[in-house]
């Protein structure tokens, strides 16, 4: 038997059935037209952002990292609740533009920005977080041709990392950002070249549940930014402090102590660090990850060599991360429930597999659950971020899942 991850708060049962916003899952499914489907709770997203606003100093701005979930209705929902948006492609900018989100609220990071993408961003007035000297030079040249000063920040590859982070994106040789020892020189150069200077972007890592580690990285980020600004002899209109706030996916994961992170940021705000600089956090999964659930149904039950397999009508083509194939080092079970019997005692140990013809498509191993028959609904939680958008939906031709914001 292998433990399941913790079911996020906010999915209280009604009459023993999983519910969202006080409405039973079966009713949502009847409205949406059945499984497989991602349901996203607007209320849970709004509450999460409200908790952040309460815990963090007023001075801290909140950006949404679009790559976590770029589904247009969700972008439109989140638009009035956050200060800005971080994108990682011109394609994501098109989604924001269509949702009526202003370019001046948007910054664009990510390696390998093509000239066409740079041009789109410069024309629109999106801030470019430059990932290299070469990219900065191409942006300057394109700006010159367009007769338009690029809004430009420099992403720094910091000389430290976010301890214990799920995905390391800094510290050592990296594809992201300009090495810290080269960043001041490049900043001076682009400021002298007349860009619309926006400051630094320093992202030290992702998916951390450790408040001390996050506070330490934020402290280091601010120290590094001040050092670089002094060295370059420039001011910083804005400092993007990165994010890294994680959510509990697996058994034993404890939620991040947001209050502790907020307290340390209050100390920084009280000390009037970097006066005149806008301080920004960019969060993806922390805003939307737990607010989504992926709902599927059992298509088949079978036994093989003493083990029970439930085969569902979804799979890794919609929710790759739950199969452990999206950057996981060890495969562990996401939180999962038999959705119409969430209060029932577990009765059997099952493997839950998707409908793709590959052994990779396993969404739970030796999970202890109430009995589920063919046709019964299976809920897989923590599906609001890196779900539909981060999964190979064309693989094996089953097609995409529905999505619904409730
Ligand atoms: C992926 C990414 C994020 C979002 O990460 P989460 O773990 O979803 O919060 C934010 N900023 C940058 C630069 C990223 O690459």
TrEMBL record:
SUPFAM superfamilies: Alanine racemase C-terminal domain-like, PLP-binding barrel. Keywords: Pyridoxal phosphate. Pfam families: Orn_Arg_deC_N. It comes from the Bacteria. InterPro entries: Ala_racemase/Decarboxylase_C (IPR009006), DCO2ase_PEP1 (IPR017530), De-COase2_CS (IPR022657), De-COase2_N (IPR022644), Orn/DAP/Arg_de-COase (IPR000183), Orn_de-COase (IPR002433), PLP-binding_barrel (IPR029066). Residues 44-288 form the Orn/DAP/Arg decarboxylase 2 N-terminal domain. The keyword Nuclease does not apply. The keyword Aminoacyl-tRNA synthetase does not apply. This is Pyridoxal-dependent decarboxylase, exosortase A system-associated. It comes from Blastomonas marina.
